[in-house]
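Thread: Modeling a multi-component assembly for a lab meeting

Hi all, long-time lurker, first post. My supervisor asked me to bring a structural picture of a complex we are working on to next week's group meeting, and I have zero experience with this. I have the sequence lines for every component (671 residues in total). Could someone generate the structure of the whole assembly? Inputs are pasted exactly as I received them:
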Amino acid sequence: MNTPFTAEERRKFLQEYSKLHEKSLELEYQVVTSEVEVSDDLVKETDTLRVKLGEMRDQYRLNVPVLPLSRCPYTNQVVYHSIDHYGLDGLWWNSEAPIRPVEVLPSSFFMLNGALDLGKIEKTTFVVKPGPEVPYVIPEILSLPQFKAVISKVKIGDHTGYPIFYFIEDWEEAVEPMNNWGTNYWSFLDADMQLGYHEYGVYAEEQEPDYSDEEIIDDEDEEIEYTYDFDLAKWVDDGKLLWVAPDDPAFMLRKGTSGCSYLNLSGSRQFSVLFDGEYVEPEEEES
Amino acid sequence: MANKPEDIEDFDEEFEVKEYLIPKNIVNALIDNFSIIRNKLSEVMDIPTSTTSEHALGWWRQQSGDDQIVLKAALTAMAAPAMISQISIMRGNEKYIQTTMAQESSRVSDPCFLIGEDESGDHVKIRRLRAPDVMIGTMLMYLDSEMELGVADFNFTTEIDDFHTLLGFLDLYRRQYYQALMEHEPLPTVFNTEDVRNSIDDAHSYGDPRWLLPLALPVLPNTTVPDQNTLNYSLYDLGKIGIINISSDYSTVTLADPTELLCNEMLTRPASIRITNLGFDENNNPAGMSTMFIRSENLVWFINVGGDTGGTASWAVIDLEKASELMKELFTPVGAPTVVAPEPVEAPKASSDAKYCSLCGKEATWIEQYQRWYCYSCQRYLDS
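Re: Modeling a multi-component assembly
Sure thing. I ran the full set together rather than chain by chain. Output:
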């Protein structure tokens, strides 16, 4: 969380990063595949480059923009979240190793999903998973009384993004969040400034519950499988899904379907997977 | 306050939380730089005009990552507070504390910030509290004062002008108590109405918060010293509700029985707390409320200054549990503050004056209020 990139600063940064990253891969390949003993100089150069790339990722984390994206219906706070809105070629969008700062979010923040209506796809050396082209909600979460969601719109390079923030009224009633938009984990900073971090659907090794002594019973409620609902109108009607009008600089929360521009949007409902400037293959469900 | 006690302290001793200092003249630049949305209440914070953005960002880069997280949240609270509480505490006759608590969240259990300024006046001083409960706990500790607390069924309401008069009278009683001690005389039971006026005049002239009326003055709508005739009417009104007895020629007053308890209790005040809350009501209209909590020798007094109409002051003796309950209610924001949205103003017509966003290429909008160009497409200000 430092000073946001300008478009030009970011362009130069990514150009340099990409060049060094490519060079690093080449050197590492040489080190790994060499049939003779690798020279100290090569090892040193490889290490130096690795350190430099690490420093650059830290720099990116400091400079990635943090923008107002939503508003919490429980605390009325504007939600500021990092997002590389200049384009999908930013390291923020690397689905396997996203570079993002620690987010400072309302205590009611539960999770962030998103959709992205694709424009011209940027070339990337990493996989980008920006969600489907049209926004959706998770019925298994949003139908619970302690949750509300808010949808908004943000321009991301040549694309149109739809962040969908979920907020919880009472953490005592929490369920497992899904992974954050475009990433393979969920995280949040709690009121004691402690970072909560985990991967949706995966137990950390040391925390894996031991069921060996337990009687196996068929409990349908034990694991809820999340599904996706693209028919937003009924959620908006029920007051469970609120929305922020596009380009509203005050981020005021709105209710009801009247004037809501997020309904019946056209676009693919498949979860996009992008790599090297191309649409790779649709995923059946978000991982 | 023209004449404060010299030992003006803040909460450093009470709160073992880190203190952050931000140069005042960069606060606005930081808020703008981080695209933080402001609301109307932020105008109360009285943040001066900023220096250049470069200066502000240069300072920001020197802060550690952990500090930046807290500072960013503090800047957000300053820019868009859901409620601001101006809190003044007089502890005994020795320590005067003043701070401002800003809550960004409308949840009372969420973190908040104490905001003040350093001794030089050049920096905004910030401390993050886990929740307003921390502040409430501290104030309750002051009200408790490790002294046994009694109970009494004592409550009454006066007009706000008469409240002003009553506080002046309570100060006069206390003065005469000390004077009687000094001169080895018994405490008088009859008080000249002229002396009541002198007591009020003294409160207005010196503003010394060790006395009750000066402590309350900042939250009283009528801040003038009444002429003798007006004062006599006010004393007469207090007589009508049984607070005092005024002589038929309006020259002297004596205490009614219950007031003797009030006067004697107010001789020793381990803690006097004044809270002014600025926020919004259920209809999202600006609203304010002032209250006082006073720990006297044996009792805790709650005073709702202004009431629903702004024209009354209601006193009640309460216990600490009730004080806690009232404070929690006080620190719970009700309405939503109006956002200061950048108002689109027609940009200069000449095409050579038009500005375009370097990111999306669209034409930017001139925001008169901030004297800057704004790109609605990218939701950001253009670099100046």
